[in-house]
From TrEMBL:
Name assigned to this protein: TIGR01777 family oxidoreductase
SUPFAM superfamilies: NAD(P)-binding Rossmann-fold domains (SSF51735)
Signal peptide residues on this chain, from the entry's feature table: none
Domain DUF1731, first and last residues per copy: 272-306
Residue span(s) of domain NAD-dependent epimerase/dehydratase: 3-230
Family as reported in the entry's similarity comment: Belongs to the NAD(P)-dependent epimerase/dehydratase family. SDR39U1 subfamily.
Amino acid sequence: MKVVIPGGTGQVGTLLKRDLAAAGHDVVVLTRRPVREGEVSWDGRTLGSWAEEIDGSDVVINLAGRSVSCRYTPENLQSMMDSRVESTRVVGEAIAGAARPPRVWLQMSTATVYAHRFDAANDEASGVIGGGEAGVPGYWGYSVKIAKEWERAQERAGTPRTRKVALRAAMVMSPDRGGVFDVLLWMARLGLGGPVAGGAQYVSWIHYRDFVRAVEFLIARDDVEGPVNVAAPEPLPQREFVRALRGAWGVPVGLPATAWMAEFGALAIRSDTELLLKSRRVVPGRLLDAGFAFDYVRWQEAADDLVRRVRRGGERRNVRQILLQQLGLPVR
Ligand SMILES: NC(=O)c1ccc[n+]([C@@H]2O[C@H](COP(=O)([O-])OP(=O)(O)OC[C@H]3O[C@@H](n4cnc5c(N)ncnc54)[C@H](OP(=O)(O)O)[C@@H]3O)[C@@H](O)[C@H]2O)c1
């Protein structure tokens, strides 16, 4: 197959590209700064010669969007919105204008579209879409709005010959440097892997092997379209999540943090507490119904496996180096 991955230079794109290329597929990545073989230039907003890559391709997987690991200032939120909606719109235009459109368009979305919720899990059929929750910071609603507009941009695209799937993905956990798991692991190693604000908020996650397998499954399954939750079947409260992570690495303690302390820490690493405090309780109803079998259902097993892979990969950075790197300071 020829697979085109707009925004495929980041964490998720690297995982997919690695696997799809190893399986013998022809993978083309659309990026604003092409440097490697197989990368083609685009701006994420306007049609250009890059659209020729989509014409005649089999699969498009659009991952483009400004990173969400940043302070949620009005400017950053706007840029998170624009980069997602604009890139999705223009990918839709390229598919609509293709003489030989791809048979499937997988569009990244996010599990964040669901409400901050503790009482029950959100599947695609009965889940509660967020934005109207009481007692949460107003700007959390904006992340939900981004997710909704992102999905709407795909829905609106007039691409009748292409099956459309929106991937409502949870945090993809991989052993790679700079990914979500890397950040969580270094926090745990610094002794900061304790419950945050009580730790009752749910964490939804997916092991990267299952993520890649789920994407391949959705490419193959012609009968699945629309939103699909791409998350392991067992999300768990944050305090249990970090306990399992500490157990996997062998860190005896994790300092509990109040919401205030989390705010301070997030400020230090230029991230946002919404990523830590929002309860994301999301389950993969449609994937399970379609017969997808997860290799990693329980977080403890996934965390043990990821730690093993990190250790095998020669994790030689010490705690000081990791801290300096996360603070954006020179590591000598
Ligand atoms: N990682 C996760 O666990 C996770 C979970 C759920 C959803 N997601 C979503 O999945 C997507 C991919 O995730 P990721 O972790 O791989 O993200 P990432 O590492 O931040 O990569 C996203 C890519 O988007 C491109 N991009 C950034 N700003 C852009 C802009 N203004 N216009 C066009 N392209 C832009 C960048 O490519 P170039 O700089 O090369 O152009 C970048 O490599 C993101 O949209 C993310 O929100 C991720």
